[in-house]
Amino acid sequence: MLTRHATYAATVAATLWDVPQHYNIGVDVCDKWADGTGRLAIIHEKSPNHIQYYTFDQLKAYSNRFAHVLQQAGVVRGDRVGILLAQGIETAIAHIACYKLGLIAIPLFSLFGSDALAYRLSNSGARALVTNAEGVAKLASIETPLPQLQTVVDIDATQDTPAAPITLAFWPALQQQPDTFEPVPTLADDPAVIIYTSGTTGKPKGALHAHRVLLGHLPGVEMSHNFFPDHAKVMWTPADWAWIGGLFDVLMPSLHHGIPVLACRFAKFTAEAAFDIMSRHQVTHTFLPPTALKMLRRLENPRDRWPLALHSIASGGESLGLELIDWGRRNLDITINEFYGQTECNMLVSSCADLFEPKIGSMGKAVPGHDIQIVNDQGDILPDGAEGNIGVRRPDPVMFLSYWNNPEATQEKFAGDFLVTGDVGVRDEEGFFRFVGRNDDVITSAGYRIGPGPIEDCILGHPQVSMVAVVGLPDDERTEAVTAFVVLNEGVEPSDALKKDIQEHVKTRVAAHEYPRRVYFVDALPMTTTGKIIRKELRNYTETAG
Ligand code: ATP
Ligand code: MG
Fold first, then answer.
1. Percent of the chain, pLDDT > 70?
2. Residue 42 Cα distances to 45, 60, 143, 252, 512, angstroms
3. Atom number in ligand 1 closest to CA 203
4. Rounded Cα distance, 463 and 455, in Å
5. Which key words tag this protein in UniProt (predicted)?
6. What is the pLDDT of residue 447?
7. Which terminus in the chain has less CB density within 10 A, N or C?
8. Where do the domains of the chain lie?
């Protein structure tokens, strides 16, 4: 855990890992705080008129009961259990019960279609699935045989259905079980969870993590929130708990520190809805991915309309950029802390406004506890200022164990002593890491290597632009031509004059050789379910569509 020090160097020097041999996420985030004092754990808002408050004592009792339910259904240690649920109390109960039983939880995004769901259930060989009525219906539409799936637990059901796979009614089943359960004494290195990557570059890969993954996340969470849990009263994120960002950057670390988490599933995420919920629950800490921030920034002066208690905003998953940082400072008096990581190994680099001014164009410095270096493809360390792979020295408590059922991909992920992220970056002499781009997204144009991030950030600063993605398209003369796909603000008409204006905007602000030679106006950008721009698809799109 990070302790507050005045400087980054002192914080690094004071940080030591403390990973016990035996460690269980479920016990740590729940039983530890269940001391009969009624400490608040989860605020579940089903609608503004339907809010339920759950204590750690309740969470312990419910997760113990659910552990018995799974055990009686024949699920045994090491089995995989899918959790296809949005944010909510049952999601937390299911996760904690799985960890206490030594099972492997598989968080699944509630908006997945049947193909996405079938792929993950089949790839992981899930034995059980915890879901709701909607999920049960989705499951019924899957044609792929799922012979391993024996039990489904439906949080909406009022009675069991015996047809295969057997469907159990969650809440009635809980009622029949005792409050007490002896958690399995897992090792910190025992598998706990498989999280599928976003699938930005190809088919999603199942990253298998050990129980220690939560301890590995703590310094990053603490740094990106200016020494969390200082000043923390309520934590919230619109990111689904099915992703590493929602689950291990928000839900689990917050419960680890005994800070209540607000759970809510939005019918539709809007800036108004986000400010409304943050205001009503006086949220102090939030993780807002850049896509969410881009929606919020359509509003100026939100504090005129909503009384906010916000203390800290962390953001990551994509480049943040000056535009969003400026908006946060202007409108909320908060310097948004950018962080960097990936499903396989997360919260590695971060900014921390309490320790240093963010450097524009950089993601921050190495999170204490992690040794982050720029390395070549063989895993040799490159000097400051050189461009190369962002690498993480192993072992590291936050590092994944392997890709599920994919030893080749696991092996390819490492070079020498380092996990190679697949992202290109540069570290400067002060220790700031600049994100150049994903290996595949770096544009090679007329001998220059250009990352899309700074150009996108600049175009986003154009008053008529709402969203933008920059890619390199094949070009006879320059290998690749910098190309911008632009979504304009509502009501703005595309025109050649506007195209020129956007090009000039980049030429004068970024660099003449980086301006987009081609600009296409589009209605929307292809995005992953996590809200990341799929640049790969834009490259394919134009190759065929001209
Ligand atoms: P897949 O691996 O399936 O293609 P993905 O890499 O998008 O999908 P995630 O693990 O969710 O899946 O995302 C991690 C990636 O997100 C990082 O490797 C990096 O490319 C990008 N990323 C994360 N944080 C930042 C950041 N602060 N700035 C720029 N990019 C970031
Ligand atoms: Mg990836």
1. 99
2. 9, 12, 36, 11, 51
3. 3
4. 15
5. ATP-binding, Ligase, Nucleotide-binding
6. 85
7. C
8. 24-186, 443-539
Residue 541 confidence (pLDDT): 64
Residue 224 has pLDDT above 60, yes or no: yes
pLDDT at 424 over 90: yes
- Under 8 Å CB-to-CB from 164, ≥6 apart: which residues? 150
Residue that has been written with the tokens 């301006």 in this structure: 515
Q: Which amino acid is at 428?
A: D
Which of these CATH numbers, 3.30.470.20, 3.30.559.10, 1.25.40.10, 3.30.300.30, describes 443-539? 3.30.300.30
Could you tell me the pTM of the whole model?
0.94
List C-alpha distances in Å: 259 to 186, 235, 256, 410: 24, 7, 8, 35
Task: Give the residue whose CA is nearest to atom 30 of ligand 1.
Answer: 318
Residue 312: what residue type? S
CATH superfamily of 24-186: ANL, N-terminal domain (3.40.50.12780)
Ligand nearest to the CA of 390: 1
Q: Which of 189, 198, 541 is nearest to 400 (CA)?
A: 189
Tell me which residue of 374, 350, 354, 346 sits closest to 363, measured CA to CA: 350
Whether 245 lines ligand 1, by a CB cut-off of 6 Å, is no
29-41 burial, b at 16+ Cβ within 10 Å, e below that, comes to bbbebbeeeeebb
Q: Is the CB of 319 under 6 A from ligand 1?
A: yes
Q: Calculate how far, in angstroms, residue 366's C-alpha sits from the geometric centre of ligand 1.
A: 16
Above 90 in pLDDT, residue 505? yes
